[in-house]
From TrEMBL, chain A:
Record note on quaternary structure: Homodimer.
Official protein name in the record: Aldehyde dehydrogenase family 3 member A2
Recorded family membership: Belongs to the aldehyde dehydrogenase family.
GO molecular function: 3-chloroallyl aldehyde dehydrogenase activity; farnesal dehydrogenase (NAD+) activity
Enzyme type, top EC level: oxidoreductase
Spans through the membrane: 98-116
Its EC number(s): 1.2.1.3, 1.2.1.94
PROSITE patterns: ALDEHYDE_DEHYDR_CYS, ALDEHYDE_DEHYDR_GLU
Lineage: Eukaryota, Metazoa, Chordata, Craniata, Vertebrata
Chief place of localization: endoplasmic reticulum
Pfam families per the UniProt record, alphabetical: Aldedh (PF00171)
From TrEMBL, chain B:
Lineage of producing organism: Eukaryota, Metazoa, Chordata, Craniata, Vertebrata
The keyword Ion transport belongs to this UniProt entry's keyword annotation: no
Name of this chain's protein: AL3B1 dehydrogenase
One GO location term (cellular component): cytoplasm
Any one GO BP annotation for this protein: aldehyde metabolic process
Keywords noted in UniProt: NAD, Oxidoreductase
UniProt GO molecular function: 3-chloroallyl aldehyde dehydrogenase activity; aldehyde dehydrogenase (NAD+) activity
Domain Aldehyde dehydrogenase: 19-424
Family assignment from sequence similarity: Belongs to the aldehyde dehydrogenase family.
Gene (UniProt): Aldh3b1_1
InterPro entries per record: Ald_DH/histidinol_DH (IPR016161), Ald_DH_C (IPR016163), Ald_DH_CS_CYS (IPR016160), Ald_DH_CS_GLU (IPR029510), Ald_DH_N (IPR016162), Aldehyde_DH_dom (IPR015590), Aldehyde_DH_NAD(P) (IPR012394)
Active site, UniProt feature: E209, C243
Amino acid sequence: MERMQHVIARARAAFNSGRSRSLEFRIQQLKALERMVKEKEKEILAALHADLHKSGPNAYNHEILGVLIELALAMEKLPSWAAPQHVKKDLITMRDEVFINFEPLGVVLIIGAWNYPFLLIMHPLVGAIAAGNAVVVKPSEVSENTAKLMADLLPQYLDRELYPVVTGGVPETTELLTQRFDHILYTGNSAVGKIVMAAAAKHLTPVTLELGGKSPCYIDKDCDLAVACRRITWGKYMNCGQTCIAPDYILCDPSIQSQVVENIKATLQEFYGEDVKSSADYERIINKRHFKRVMGLLEGQKIAHGGENDEASCFIAPTILTDVSPDSKVMEEEIFGPVLPIVTVKSVEEAIEFINRREKPLALYVFSNNKKLIRRVLSETSSGGMTANDVFMHSLVPNLPFGGVGNSGMGAYHGRYSFETFSHRRACVIKDLKMEVVNKLRYPPGSQEKVDL
Amino acid sequence: NLYAGLVSHLRASWLSRKTRPMEYRVAQLEALGHFLDEKKQAILEATAADMGKPPFETELSETLLCKNELHETLNNLSHWMKDKQVDRPLATRLDSAFIRKEPYGVVLIIAPWNYPIHLFLVPLIGAIAAGNCVIIKPSEISKNTERLVAEALPCYLDKDCFAVVTGGVQESTRLLENKFDYIFYTGSPSVGRIVMTAAAKHLTPVTLELGGKNPCYVSDTCDVPNVARRVVWGRFFNAGQTCIAPDYLLCSLEMQEKLMPALREAIVEFFGPNPQESPDFGRIVGDKQFQRVRKLLCSGRVAIGGQTDEAERYIAPTILVDVQPWDPIMQEEIFGPILPIVVVANMDEAIDFINAGPRPLAIYAFSSSDKVVNQVLERTSSGGFCGNDTLMHVTLTSLPFGGIGNSGLGMYHGKFTFDTFSHCRGCLKRGMGREALNAPRYPPYSQKKFGIVRATSKVARKDDCILL
C-alpha cells in the first residue's frame, strides 16, 4: 500500500516537473506506445488467448487494430486539438485576446475491465497521454495474463514515472481509490461505478464511468431477416457475449420469432462450424464464477438452441431462448454471456415502452427497412449510443463520442473526446492595461445613463 | 420521502415528452425573459434587502448578463439542437453518422445566495434549452430573493415541468435523496462533496461550480492607477461576495508602496470618502457571514478601511498589509470586502506561491509585459484566467465558465450550458444492403480477412504510402 502511495507521489512529482506538457514529448510517448503494440503483437495476442481463448485474428481485430487507429488519430490531430481556441468576442473585448486553453488535468487514473483487457486500458491511455497528463494504469486482475503483460511492457516503452502500472485486486483498488486523482476513467459495472464515484467525490475528482446494462435489439417485421440475424449473431456471440455493447436481448413480433431463431442458427453454423467447441474463433467465459452466473440464467427457460456447456473449460455454447418472460432472471441483469433471450412484442410502441421502462442502456439496436420507424425509435428512447441495421459499428467511428447515460454511465471518450475528457478547458482573456476609458462605464458611482448605455 | 411526489410529477411530465419540441422550449425561455423584465423592480428590491446590492450591480449581473445568455440561446437554439454529422472511416463511409443531443430528464439546480437570480437562471436557461424538466433550489440565505423566485417563477413557467423548492440544509438533504438525471450545484467545495456523494448513489452526473482563493499578481511594471481601479472594482463588487473576485494580491514591496495611494484613490473615486453612505457599495448577506468576515480583519495590519457596523452588516472596503501566508485570512476564501496583500520578491515566487495551494476558480495577473502575463498563465492552473483585468472572462458567452480540482468540475455559459444539460448520443444508421462488404469481419477468421478489415477501418497517417 505504501508502495502505491509512493508510485502516485512520483507520478505527481513527474507531472509537476512539466515534462509531459510539450507536444513533442507527448507524441514521442505515443510513438513509443505504437512501437510497443507493433513489436509485442505476438505477446499481446498470447496473453489475450490465455485470458479469454481469443483467436489471433479476432484479438487483433478487436483489441489491437482499434488501438493503432486511435494512436494514429491522436498523433495526427494532437497539434490541432491542443491549440488554443480563439472564440467570438463582444464589443468590450474587441481588442483583447480571448481564447480557450486546453490544459492537462494532472494525474489521472484509468481502471480497465477484463473483457477487452488490452483495448480498454490502451484506448483511454492514448487520450490521457495526448492531453499531457501523468497516468496511473490499473488493469483488471481478472484478465491476469494481460494485466501482467501490461505491467511488464508499459515501463519498457513509456516514461516510467509518468505512467506507472498498478496491479492487484479489490483491496488494492480500494486503496488506490482513497488517493487523490485529477480524473478517473472507470470501465466496468454500475455497482462498482457508484463506489468509484463516491470515492471520487471525497476529492472532488471528475469521473468518466463506462458502465453497462441490457442493450436492446428490436427487429422489425419489415427487414431482411437473414442479414439482420447475421449481424446480430456476429455482435452477440463475439467474445462469448462478453461485450458491453453486445445486443443483450431481442424484441420482435411473435410471428417472426422462429424465423429469427432459424436464421441465427444458420449463421452460427457458418461462423463456427458443426462443433462450436472446436472452433478456434469461439471464446470462453472468463472464469468459473461468471460461468456459473450465466448458466444460472438458463433456469426455467425455453432453450431453442444451444445450452451445451463444460465447466472445466468455461465453455457455454451459443444459446437462444424463446418466449422469454420480462420478469425472468435473464431479463434482470446484463447477461454478459452467449445467451440471447427473445421477448415478443406486438408493435414498435410496445417495444419502445418496454425499453423506456428500464434503465437507459449503453447501446440500442433497431433493424428495419422503414426509415420512419428507425427515426421514431431513435427519438423516443435514450441510450449511450445506437446503431440502426447493424451492431457495434457506432463505437468504431472515431469521431462519435462513446459513453453511457443514466445507469450505463457518464462522460464519453474515443478520438477527440478522449483528449477533451482528460483536458481542462481554461477560459482566458488578456487585456491591455491601457484603454481604461472603456472600463469607466462599469465603475461606480453607478447612474442610470451608464445602465442605459 | 418529502419530495418524492414532486419529483415523480415532473418525471411523468418528462415521460410525456412535452419539453422536447423546440417551440415549447422557446416559449418557456421567452417566459423567463418576461420574468426578468416584469420583475426587474422586485429583483432590485429583493437583492437590496438581502445584501444591500447596489441597483447598478443588480442591473449588470442579475439582469443584463442573464439577458445576454437568454438571447444567445434563443438566437442559436435551432442550430444547437440539430444532429451533428461526423466524418467516417472507409468502412462506414456510405452510412449516416451523427451526434444527437438529448435532454437528460429531470434535473436539479441548486443556487447560492450571492448572485441569487443569475446563478439559478443562467443554468436554467441551458437546462430548458436542452429539453429537461427542472427543479430549482434557491438559497434560503438570500431569503427575500428566495421568496420572490418561489412566488413569481411558477407564474411564468409550466408548472408541470418546472418547480421551485425552498428551505434550508434539511430540505436540501431530503431533496438530494431523490434520483435526478443531472445535478448542477454552485456553492462551496465542502457542500460540493456532499452533493457529489449523494449523486453517486444514483449515478447522477454533476457540474460543481465551487470556489477557492483567487490570486491576483501585480508585477513591477504596470500602469498603477489602472491596475488599482480594476482590482478595486473586482474585489469590492457585491461587497466582495463573488466567487471570482480577486481574493488576495501578490506583489513586491515596492509595488505595494506604489499601489497603496492608487488603491485609496480608486476607493474614494468609486465610493466617496465614506463608503457606508455610498449607494454603490453592498452589505454582507447575513449575521453569521458578517461575524466570519469581520474576524479576518485581525490578520496583518489595516492599511485602508477596516471600519465595520454590525447593525448594517457593513464592512468598509479594506486593504490589509503585512499579511503572512499562515494568517487566518489566508486559510479560507474571504468572500468579503477585504483585500490582503502578500509580499513576494518576484514573479517566480508568486507563481510558486500560487502553485502551492489548491487550484482556484480564477487567476489574475497584471503587467505591461505580455511575457509576464503569459508566464503566469502557462505556469499555473485555474478554472479561468484574466490578464490585466478582473472578472471580465466570465462575461463572454463564448467562453466556458468552470473550475478545476477544488474549485469545481464541469463548465457552463452560452452553448456550454446547453451541452452540460445534454447527453451526446453517438448514432450510426446503416442500410441492410452491401452485406458482402461486411464479410471480412465474420468468422471463420483469417489473416486475409483482417487485412481488408484493417484497410477499411484505419485512419491513415498523412505520410503513409497508400499502396503498402
